[in-house]
Amino acid sequence: MGILEFLGAVGRVIVGVLGLDVGNADWIAQHPQRLGIAVAVAAIAGISTLLGDAVVIFFNRLRGWRFALTLALNGIGMVLLYLVQAAVIYVIGPLISGFDPGFTAVVTAVLLATAPLVFGVFVLVPYAGPAIAGFLHVWGMVALWVIVDVVFRIDHWTALWITLISWLCMQVLSRAFAVPIRWIGDWIWRLVSGQPSMITGSDLLSGHLFLPLGQRFDPEARS
Amino acid sequence: MILVNVLIGLGLLVLLALTFAPLESLGWWAREGADEAAATVQELAAIDSGPDDSAYDGYVVYLSGIGAVGGDSVPPEELPLIQNLSSRLTRLKVIHDVFPYSVSNNGLTAQRPTAAVWRWVEKLRFKNPETLAGMLINARNAMQLFVCADRRYGPAYNVGTAQEVMRALRRHGYPMGSGLPVTLIGWSGGAQISIGAAWYLGMGGRIPLQVISVGGMMADDYGLDRIQKLWHLRGSKDPLEKLGGILFAGRWPHAVFSPWTNALKDGRIEIIDLGPMQHNVKDHYFDANSIAPDGRSYLQVTEDAIVAVLTGEPVKTVPLHSVPTRREVSA
Question: Which residue of A14, A16, B174, B322 lies most exposed, with the fewest beta carbons within 10 A?
Answer without folding.
Answer: B322
